[in-house]
Amino acid sequence: MKVVAFARTQQGTGASRRLRNAGQTPGIIYGGAAAPELIALDGNALFHALKKEAFHGSILDLELDGKTQKVLLRDFQMHAYKQMVLHADFQRVDASQPVHTKVTLHFINAEISPAVKLSGAIVSHVLNELEVSCLPEQLPEFITVDLSTLEAGQSIHVSQLNLPEGVTVVAHGQDQTVATSSIPRGAASAEPAAE
């Protein structure tokens, strides 16, 4: 995805307020060998781009003064009640260095899993994103979690996920639970009564 940015020279609260009033969003690019650069982005375009999942989890082409550089969206601040992005942080990406970021999890086949189909269990998503480390070109847009073999009362852990090639999980401690299935209390007591 491509992002067009403009260099900005003024910084501070007043300068940022003037930018926002002009429909722009202040931002910064940092990381790599170059010094941090202050930038301004089209506020409306950035607001709509942030609605796309791919914008958060993929390497972006940021064009600044006619030069394109590879960046990763690291952080952004939204206004409390207005549809406005207050600030955006981008980190430069080196193609030869691994990136450390969070990737969204997509859950599929819950409705055909034995837990739901045979036992009437409820599947709970414990994690919605996963911290990974990989080279920039190997960064997946999302990781798919297949729930088709999930039995009632069982869980799926990080070690059971099929990760794309070159992607490793940045684990904090033990094997984290990704999703669980549990039978609701009322469903368990209603079955013997029906017999």
Topology:
Blueprint (H helix, E strand, L loop, with lengths): L1 E6 L5 H9 L2 E7 L6 E6 H7 L3 H4 L3 E5 L2 E12 L6 E8 L6 E10 L5 H4 L4 E4 L3 E6 L7 E5 L8 E3 L10 E2 L7 E6 L2 H10 L1
Parallel strand pairs: 1-4, 2-6, 7-10
Antiparallel strand pairs: 1-3, 2-3, 4-5, 5-6, 7-9, 8-13, 9-12, 11-13
Helix content: 10-25%
CA-atom Rg in angstroms? 22 Å
The general outline is elongated
Alpha plus pi helix count: 5
Largest sheet entry: 6 strands, mixed, barrel
Q: Could you state the order of secondary-structure elements as H and E?
A: EHEEHHEEEEHEEEEEEH
Average pLDDT confidence is 88
Q: Provide the structure class.
A: alpha+beta
- The stretches of 5 or more residues where confidence is low (pLDDT under 50) are 188-195
For the biggest β-sheet, the strand order reads 1-3-2-6-5-4
User: Approximately what portion of the residues adopt beta-strand conformation?
Assistant: 35-45%
Oligomer: single chain
Q: Got a strand count? A: 13
Q: Could you tell me how far the N terminus lies from the C terminus, measured between alpha carbons in angstroms?
A: 58 Å
